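[Discussion] Sanity-checking designs against the backbone

I'm trying to build intuition for which residues belong where. Below is a C-alpha cell string of 193 positions. I'd appreciate it if someone posts a full sequence so I can compare it with mine line by line.
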C-alpha cells in the first residue's frame, strides 16, 4: 500500500463533500460508537477522517499522544480548533505508511460516492501494524457473513441509540499490500459504508 493515488477526480469529490451534512458528535458519542475507554486512548496516535466540527479530537488530545483531524472542507470553513486540523481528502491521505495507532471515520465515508475503495485502502495504509481502523456506520449487505477474515469484523459496540454496527479492522502485520487490496474488495462486497 505504498503507492499514492493520482488519478482521482478531485473536483467531483469536492462537490460531493459539499453536499455532506455537518454534525458534531462529541467525545462521549465517539467513545460509544467506536468502543473506546479513556484507557484505550492513552499514548495513542489517532487520525479522525472527516472530523468536521466534532469535538472528539479536543477531548481525546488530553489523553492521547496526538490526535489529528482531517477534513476536505476545512479550507472553506475554518475549524474552531485549528491545531492538528488538516485539509485533505480521505482518498489521498498526506501521511506516511504505518503512522497511526487508530484511524477513525464517523459518518464521513458514508458520504463518499467517488473513491470509497481508495479511502479505505488509504486508511489501512496509514495505520500501524496491529493498529485499528474503525468506521461507523457499516451496514452488512443482505445475505453476507459478518466475519470477513481474522482482521476484519463488524461490531455492535455502542450504547448509542443507533442500531448500526461499526466496522473494525485490525491491521494484520503479516498481510502484504496485495492481501489488503483483496481484503478491501471483499469488505466492500459485503458491507455498505
Ligand atoms: C456528517 S459530517 C461528520 C462529522 C464528524 N465525523 C461527526 O461524526 O460528527 C461528515 C464530514 O465528512 C467530511 N467529508 C466528506 N467526504 C470527505 C472526504 N472524501 N474526505 C475528507 N472528508 C470528507 C465532510 O466535509 C464533513 O465534515
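Best answer:
Here's mine. Compare freely.
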Amino acid at each position: 500500500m505504498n503507492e499514492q493515488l493520482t488519478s482521482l477526480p478531485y473536483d467531483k469529490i469536492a462537490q460531493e463533500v459539499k453536499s455532506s451534512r455537518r454534525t458534531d458528535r462529541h467525545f462521549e458519542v465517539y467513545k460509544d460508537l467506536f468502543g473506546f475507554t479513556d484507557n484505550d486512548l492513552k499514548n495513542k496516535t489517532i487520525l479522525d477522517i472527516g472530523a468536521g466540527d466534532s469535538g472528539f479530537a479536543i477531548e481525546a488530545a488530553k489523553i492521547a499522544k496526538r490526535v489529528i483531524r482531517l477534513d476536505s472542507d476545512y479550507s472553506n470553513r475554518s475549524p474552531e480548533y485549528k491545531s492538528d486540523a488538516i485539509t485533505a481528502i480521505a482518498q489521498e491521505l498526506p501521511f506516511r505508511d504505518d503512522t497511526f495507532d487508530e484511524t477513525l471515520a464517523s459518518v464521513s465515508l458514508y458520504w463518499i460516492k467517488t473513491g470509497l475503495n481508495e479511502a479505505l485502502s488509504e486508511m489501512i495504509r496509514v495505520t500501524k501494524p496491529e493498529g485499528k481502523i474503525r468506521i461507523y456506520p457499516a451496514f452488512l449487505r443482505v445475505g453476507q457473513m459478518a466475519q470477513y477474515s481474522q482482521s476484519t469484523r463488524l461490531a455492535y459496540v455502542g450504547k448509542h441509540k443507533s442500531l448500526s454496527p461499526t466496522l473494525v479492522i485490525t491491521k494484520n502485520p503479516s498481510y502484504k499490500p496485495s492481501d489488503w487490496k483483496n481484503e478491501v474488495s471483499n469488505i466492500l462486497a459485503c458491507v455498505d459504508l
